[in-house]
Amino acid sequence: MSWEGVDHALNRVCGEADDISFRLASLDRHVGYRLLRDAELDGGTRHRWEGAQAHVHRLRKVYDAFRAVVDRALGIRENGGGDPLPDLTFLLTDESVVLPPAEGSPHERGLPGPDTERITPAEAVARMTADYEAATEVVSAVETAWDTLHPRLGELETMWQEIGTLSDMVELDPEEHEGLREQLVREGETVRRDPLRLVTDTRVDTSSLDRLRDLLDQSRGELRDALRMRDSYTENIQRLVSAVDDVEQAVGRARDLRTRVVAKISSPSAADVPDPVPGLRAAVVEMDALRAQGDWRGLGARLGRLQRSIHQAGDDARERERSLSGLLRRRAELRGRLDAFRARAVRLGLAEHTRLSGLHRQAHWELWNAPCDLRAATVALSAYQRTIQELSGTGHPGNRTTPGNGASDGETDGGVSR
């Protein structure tokens, strides 16, 4: 090599040595690496960590040998003397990096074995880079898993502490939630000792923690309700009774409205309105028996279920009322349209036309007959409108009676879903 080539190569290997040294120092300071080094790992995470440690160990050994070559080359370059170019050329380009024998090899135990391995500086850098990347890949994977899992686990443990406090307050048997405690312990062991077990294709699977969270949240909610029932039983019962009264009123309105709809409209048929009130009132009364037994947790669970049932029953009654009102509104709408079409026929001088008179009588009978058929009325009204357009020589496709884009005049259900 020329002196220029030597200086260029020497600068390169010095930079590579400094870069590897910086990487090693950064790895030692890395929080994830330090946590892994001190953790009691298990399963697949332990296996991969042991592989990563082997990479780091090999990296340090190669680095020490590589650094020795770089330092020797620097010393020769600074001291000069004789003709150092051959030595520098050998150190910088040839198999000058002498690696110690692998641990446990026959040579290390003083037994006959293969010669010590020699590699070039370029090969040494390639090996160190590969070892560093393999080690940091494991560290990064575990750190990513922990970053996702630890906050969720911390939330679960906080929920568990609250469950314990609430259980004591309502004097619940400590073994009542033993199953949840065991699940939490198992999940905690997995998160802390084998987090990579929950990683699939770089995606952290939190489904088991999420399911446990739902169970803990349910138990916590029941215990909170139990505490409320213990401290404010009478007030809670009064609120339940008041809520059931509201449902009873909503059901009554819907049933009265259905009676009127059935008397006025035959098709589409009016939906039934069930009465959940007797069952809800019986459930409220049954809570006294649980109170007499001091079963506050049972009362808390019953309170939550009953509140949801009352809410759903009220929503259902109001929805049925809206649906029934829709039938009456549809009938009123069709009647208004018939009057508008009749007025138009009068303006055009066609009101007494034989075809129109018959169609008007048919549509009028369908709409004012009780109970009326909204489907048949819609078809009759559409025929009346279409005939007016034909006789007047006008066409207004947009002024349709039937709802929906592209609906044919004879394919309507009265505009109301059953």
Automatic annotation (TrEMBL):
- Which key words are in the record? Coiled coil
The top of its lineage is: Bacteria, Bacillati, Actinomycetota, Actinomycetes, Streptosporangiales
Q: What is this protein's name? A: CHAD domain-containing protein
Residues annotated as region Disordered? 390-418
Q: Which organism is it from?
A: Nocardiopsis terrae
Task: Report the coiled-coil segments.
Answer: 209-250
